[in-house]
Amino acid sequence: MSARAPLPTDNQAWGASDTAWLLVFACWLVATLATLGALFFSEVMELPPCVLCWYQRIAMFPLVILLPMGLFPFDPRIVRYAFPLVLAGWGISVFQVLLVAGVIPEAIRPCTKGVPCSEVQIEWLGFVNIPLLSFLAFSTMIALLAAAQLRSKQ
Amino acid sequence: MSRKSNRNEPTRNAQPPAPARSRGGIGRGTIFAIAGAVLVLIFVSAVLAYRSTQAEAARQSAAKNASHLASAHAPLLGPADAKVHIVEFLDPACETCAAFYPHVKKLMADNPGRIKLSIRHVPFHQGSEHVVRVLEAARGQDKYWETLQAVFASQDRWTVNHRVYPERVWPFLEGIGLDLERVRRDMNAADIAARIEKDTADAQALNVTKTPEYFVNGRPLPRFGLEELQDLVKDELRSAYR
Predict the structure, then answer these.
(1) Roughly what angle, to the nearest 10 degrees, separates helices B144-153 and B128-139?
(2) Is B117 helix (H, G, I), strand (E, B) or coil?
(3) How many Å apart are CA A126 and CA B168, to the nearest integer?
(4) Residue in A122, A132, A134 with CA at minimum distance from that of residue A60
(5) Is A13 near chain B, with CB under 8 Å?
(6) Mean pLDDT, all residues of chain B
(7) Taking a C-beta distance cutoff of 8 angstroms, is the pair A97, A132 a contact?
(8) What confidence category does residue B15 fall into, taking pLDDT thresholds of 50, 70 and 90?
(9) B16, B41, B55, B136: which has the fewest C-beta neighbours closer than 10 Å?
């Protein structure tokens, strides 16, 4: 299967492309976990998603489909294709985390209709809320994709 | 190239769940499939666990707030000594309420004398309180059930896309023997306002946020659905008339 590795590899059991593959695979795991989690919150717990949540979903959901396209067969350029989505989602999640934390003031909140995006619907351990989970997911994915890029460049 | 690969050697051991051999051993496809299956499995069990917790919580809350279910003022259909009592919270402008209503009537027809039905009004749609007042006023002429039937049958003519046009309901009330002039006079009576207030307060106490909502002998639906309602009614019939 790994015969399609982009680098001319020797007979070693483990190569740079295997590591890169695993990193992209881990990124897919994070995306899928985040997607299922988001669906659980909205479809099972019936928490209405706010506008910013929808924008983050737009960035997150396609990765569940997109990343496996680069895993089978492994194509290191998947990092290039996936990265803009991850970065966009990360940016929006940072914005919302700041909104929830109160760093960004009321006046420039983009969503006043429907569910306010600064409203905290779930709080675990006193500080873990849904926007924070999204921020952590996107940050992890940035790190994984960056590492995959470095690996496959070697 | 092989020199570079050698530099990567140490990371090989650093990979935590890495398949020791991706060549010849477990393939990438297998890892992917297993991971996908595990994630889906976790999701499904989380859904089931959450639903059963919710159903239990709803059951306890309904038991605690049982006093809010029984209301002497609510319209009652069926013999008073029927052992299965369905309390339905409905909004006359709610499509699902209209769709479920014939099924509730069918349950009653299939089990004659064993089921009684109480209706509580919760006008969640803006403007539907007008129709609730009409329904309440029709009770003064002993025409509540006929009026409810007419209101549901014509619902798509006076509610469009969840928007209620209350005045459009009137033409559909002709022909059921209602004195419409009297209805117009009666619908603003203080006791009707008080009943609507009581229904709304009870709905709040029972955490009714969507319509229709059913309680069968005080038990809430485990989750919303026609089949769930039919099963719950059958279950109560079995234990009441074994």
Answers:
(1) 150
(2) strand
(3) 51
(4) A134
(5) yes
(6) 85
(7) yes
(8) very low
(9) B16
Which token pair is A98? 């700041």
Token pair for residue B220? 């809430």
The two structure tokens encoding residue B134:
């009409």
B27, containing H or E segment: none
Cβ atoms of B130 and B100 within 8 Å: the answer is no
Q: How many CA atoms lie within 13 A of B87 on its CB side?
A: 23
Could you tell me how many CB contacts below 8 A there are between chain A and chain B? 70
**Residue A145 contacts residue A82 (beta carbons within 8 Å):** yes
How many angstroms separate the CA atoms of B74 and B93, rounded? Answer: 18
Residue numbers in A near B36 (CB within 8 A): 32
| ipTM, 2 dp | 0.73
Per DSSP, the three-state class of A14 is coil
What would the two tokens of residue B42 be?
């976790």
Q: Is A36 close to B11, i.e. CB distance below 8 A?
A: no
Residue ranges in chain A modelled with pLDDT below 50: 1-3, 5, 7-12, 111-113
Q: How many helices (H) and strands (E) does chain A have?
A: 4, 0
Q: For A3-47, write each residue's pLDDT tens digit.
A: 454 544 444 456 777 889 999 999 999 999 999 999 999 888 888
For residue A85, the model assigns a pLDDT of: 96
A44 touches chain B (CB under 8 A): yes
Interface of A with B in 55-114 (CB under 8 A): 68, 71-72, 74
Query: Does B46 touch chain A if contact means CB atoms closer than 8 Å?
Result: yes
Structural domains in chain B, CATH included, are 1-64 (no CATH), 68-240 (3.40.30.10)
Pick from A15, A22, A68: CB nearest B5: A15
The distance of Cα A120 from the centroid of its chain, to the nearest Å, equals: 20
A8–B5 C-beta distance less than 8 A: no
- CA distances in angstroms from B13 to B5, B94, B213, listed in the order given: 14, 62, 58
